[in-house]
Amino acid sequence: MTLRRKNIRKFCRAAVSLALAAALLIASPQALITPVSGVGTLYRENRISLDDQSDLVLTTLQHISAGRQEERYIEWGPLSGLQAVVAYGDKVSGNALTMSELHRRLTAANLDVAAIINGDFFTLSTGEPVGILVTDGILRASDNYAAAIGFPAGGGAFIAKEPLKITMSAQIGGDIRDIAIDHVNHTRRESRLVLFTPDFAATTRTDTEGIHVILDVSGSLTIGGMVSGTVREVVHGKAPATLTAGRMVLSVDAKGPVNRVADLTPGVSVAIRVDCADSRFLSIPYAIGANVKLLTNGQLAEGLGTGTAPRTAFGIRGDGTCVYYTVDGRQEGYSAGLSLTDVALRLQSLGCVEAINLDGGGSTVLGAKYPGQDALNQMGRPSDGQQRRVANFIALVNTMPRTGTVDKLFVYPRDVTVLKNAKVAFKGYATDLNYHTVTPPPLSWWSTNRTVGSMDAAGVFTAANAGETLVGAENLNNYYVYGDAAVRVVDTLDSIRLTNEVTGRTLSSLAAAPGETIDLAATGFLDNLAVSGQDICFAWSVTGPVGDIDVNGRFTASDILGAVGRITVSYGNVVNSISVEVGKIPQAAETFEEKSNRLPEGGDKISFLYERDMDRVRYGRQAGRVTYDFRDMPADAPPTLTLSANIPLADRPAYLNLWVFGDNSGNTFGLKTTDTSGYETDLSVRTLDFAGYQYFQIALPANTARVSGLWVTRAETGAEQGTLYTDQWITSHQPYNDTLPPLVRIDTADTLLQPGHAAVEGFATDDNGAPLRDADVTLRVDGVVQPFNYDRSTGRLQALPALPDDQWHKLTLEAADPAGNRSRVSVEVSSALEPSIPPVRFSDVEDTHWAYLDVAFLDARGILTDFAAEDRVEFRPDRALTRADMALFIARMLRLNTDAAADVTLPFTDADAIPPEAAPAVRALYEMRVIKGKSQNGQLFFDPAAPISRAEFCTIIGRTMAQGYQKIPTTFADGDTVPAYAKDHIAVLVSLGVIGGYPNNTMRPQNNITRAEAAKVLCRLY
What we know:
eight-stranded mixed β-sheet; 9 helices; globular; disordered N terminus
C-alpha cells in the first residue's frame, strides 16, 4: 500500500510539473512581455490567490506615455468568501490611522484580514473624510454631495452619486417644523447647520461664536432610519460642546443659518431621519465616499485631467467582480504614477464598466496577506516614504469558517527571476480549505529542471544555468497537497540599481561619515524586472580616497573629511557607478561677499551694512557690520535689540562656525535660529569683551533650518552703543576649525603639444586632501579667467588655455577652501621656445636692468606711466613712486572700471591737486576702501605728489587682495621697524613670494618704493 501511494504521488506530481514546465519552456523570457492595447506593455503579472474567487495581482507596466509603473490591485469575485468592511479610527475627526495601525486593530478584534486599501479623500488637518461614511450600518459622516461606494449585506458593491437628505422634525407648540441639516459630523462652517454625534470626537471642536442645541436621543443614525429625542438645552458661546453617549448636538455658527434653530427650546421633541432616493443605500452596512467618477457604462468621463500621481481607484466589471486598484508614483526609476485619464483607461482594460477615483498621492497604499502568512504586507511604496495616516479604509475580511486542516500549500517568493550562481530561499506556507492560516506540515522540496537549478532540503534554490524551471514543495503527510513557483535563471542584465541595505533607498550618490560602514545592495534588472541575487554575484570596486568595499558590498569610509570618489558595481558588461563623499563638506552659509535680502541693509536702533574696509574683513572682500544704539530707549524697553535675517542653513547642520570682530562693549551678541517646524531658539555667541576677530563654533538645535535674526543684549554695565563685525559663516556636521590654506600647484604647462596653447596639469585640494568646489578654483592667464576641468575625486586639474602671442605670460592658479583660506601659485609660460620680448619704449631701461622683463611685461599691457624728456620717453625706474602714479598702476592692473566711480566724492582736502589723469583711479580705489588718505592736523590728505613707502605700498596692495591668504611671520632683520598697519599685508605678500626683501635680509619698510620695485611687485601679482 505504501509503495502504491508513493507511485501515485510521483505520477501526480510529475504530470502537473511537466505540464507547467512545458508552459514555461515553450515561451522564451521575452514572451513575458505582454502588450496591453492603449495602455502599454506588461513586464510582469504575478497573481496570488486570496481565496477561490479573489486574486492579488502585482504588475510592472511600461505605460505608453507615463513611463514605468508599479501596479498592485485585487480582483474580488462576486462569490468570494471575503467580505468588504469599511473601517476607520475611533472617531471621525482627529483620529486618522495608518494601514498598519488599522490592521492591528482589526486583528485584535479577531478579524482575519486578507487585504486593506485606503479610502476616501479627507482634510489633512482634521482627518475628516470628505464624503459619506457608513460602518456597521451606522451613518458616521454624511456626504459632501460626492459619489460613494456601497457594499450591500449580500456581497458585491455599487457606485452611485445620490446625496443624503437629513431632516430633523421638531414639535414646536402645536406645529411640526422640519429643519434641514446640512451635514453629519463635519467641521462646522458659517454656512452649515451640522449634527454632531459621539462618533465625531470628544467635543464638537468648535471655537467660534455659535449655538449648540444639545439633544438627548436614543438609537443611532442609519440611512432610512429615524432617531427620536428631546432638546436638553440651548447653549450660546464659543466653547465646544461635549459629545457623549446618548446625546447629539445640533450646531450652527453665529454667522450661519441660526434661524433654523431659533425656536428650539429645552423640552421640545425631535425626530431625525436620513433619506436617500437610491434604495440601495437604505440600511446598507458599509459605504464610503469617493471622488471623481472615471467610468460609467464602460465609457470614460470627460475632463479627467493629465497630471500624474500615485492613484487609488475602485472599479466594477460587468460580472460583478470588483477591482481595488493602486499604482505607485512620484518615484523616478520605480514608478511614475498615472493621470486620472490613464487610470480610467487602465481600469477599462481590466474589464471594468464602472469606476471611481479614491484618495491618491501620499495616501495611496494597499496591503495584503499572502495565504498562509499572518503578516499584512505593504504591497507598494508610498510616495511619502512611509504610510500616511488617512481617514478610512476598505478591508477584505475572510468570513469563511475555519477547518484547521492543511488543504493548500503556497510557495514564496512567487515567480522570480534569478542570477546565475545566486541562491534563493523558498518557504512553504499552508492554509485550510477556506484560506485561513494553519501550521505547515513537513515538506519535501523539488525542482523540475535540475540543469537550471536545484533545491536543497531546506528549500534553498541554487541557480546553475540560464533557463526556466518550477520549484515546489509537497506535504510529506499528504502527497496530494503541494505548491510551486516559477523560476527563471538568467546570466545577463540590462541594468543594476544600488540601494542602502538598511533603508532600501535607491542611491545615485552616497554621503558617509568618516569611518562609517554602510551595507550596499545591488539589484540587477532584466526586461524591467528585478533579478534576485546576492551581492557577492557582483564585482565591487572603489576609486578615490573615500574608503574600501568588500565582496558583499559593505563599504567602509575613510577618515578624510570631504574626500570624494566613486563606488562601481558591475555584472558582465553592465556597470553602475555612483559618486561618494566622505562627510558633508562644510558649506558657506553667509560670506557677506554679495548683497542679498538674507540680511537687509539699514535699520534704526540696530542696523546692518556690508563692510568693505579690509581692516575689518576676515575673509574675502566684504564682511557684515552690525551697529547698535541703546540710547533713548524707553525705560521699560527690553535690553535686547534684534535684527531680522533669513539665512538658510542647508542639510540641517550640527554647527554654525563664524568670525566676530568684538567692540569691547561688554554686551552679548547672539543669533536666532528657526527649525523645520518653525520653532525659534535664541543662541548666545559671546560676550563682547574683546576687540578684533575671534572664531566661534555654535552647536545648533536639531533640524535647524535657518538663522532668523541677530541680536545684541546690553549688559548692566555694557556700553550704550557699539559696532561689531562678523564674517565667514560656515555650517558643518562635525566640529570644524580650518585655518590652513588649500594645497595648489601647477605641475606642467606644456606649450609644445598644441601650438599657441599651454597644456596645463595642476592640483588643488583642501589641506586635508578633501576636494574643493569648482567655483572655488580659478585659473587665469594674464589675469583673465580660463576654463578648466576639475576632477574632485583626485583633485587633478586640466586646462588648455590659449596664449595670444609668443611672449611671456603669467599663469596663475588660485583656490579657496570652505573656511575662506586661500592659496595661489603662478608660473611664466610662453608658446615659443625662445619667447620674444617686446621692445621697451623707455630709453632709460636697458635689457640688462634687473627689472627689465617686469617693466616690459607691464608696459605691454598699458599699466605703467612715463615721463617725456625731449625726444625720448623715460620710465625713471629708480625714482620714488608717487601716490598718484601708485593709484594709476594699481587701477590699471585691476582693470577697474573707473567710470563707475565718477560720482564718488573724495574726502581729501587736497583732492583738487590730484592730476586729472589719476583722479578717476583714486576715486575708484577710494570707493573700494583700498586707499584712505593721510591724516594731518585733523585733516585728510591724499598728497598725490608725495612718494609712498614700501610699507604703505604693501598695505595698499594687500587691501586689493581677498582676505584669507596665509600670513607667515616674517624674519626680516629690521622686522621691528614694520608699522603695525602693514605687518599682516607684508606677511601675506612674503608667503606668496611676491616680496622677499633685500639680500641682507632687510625689508626697509620706511624707504620709499622705487618705480622699478613697484613694477616687480605688480608683475608677480599679475
